[in-house]
Amino acid sequence: MLRVDPSADEPPFAQLRDQVTAQVAEGSLAPGERLPTVRRLAGDLGIAPNTVARAYRELEAAGVLVGRGRAGTYVADAARVGAAPTTGRAAAQSAAATYARTVRELGLPPHEALMLVRQALRA
Hints:
5% strand, Arc Repressor Mutant, subunit A, mainly alpha, 123 residues, 2 strands, two-stranded antiparallel sheet
């Protein structure tokens, strides 16, 4: 279901994040479906647990997944994600998370980052 290409330019956590987002968008991962534990998925893929944990955290921040502590990590319910169709909303949330990470890495203050988004939306 999920794969990591060690020779890809994209880091493994981003590969996982993008694959989960795509699978939610296309419906192959349904709302309420439980994902493998961090340790299990890391073991299956032969990667570090922190890599899987980072992908899950970013997906939770984007509203694609919901962490329920020891009960596991689940695909967010459509109602929880919002009124927009899961496909568009999940893709937009993933893009927003990527943008936020990029502007933080660049050291751009939040108010400037938001200004750029507003300008782009008006264009």
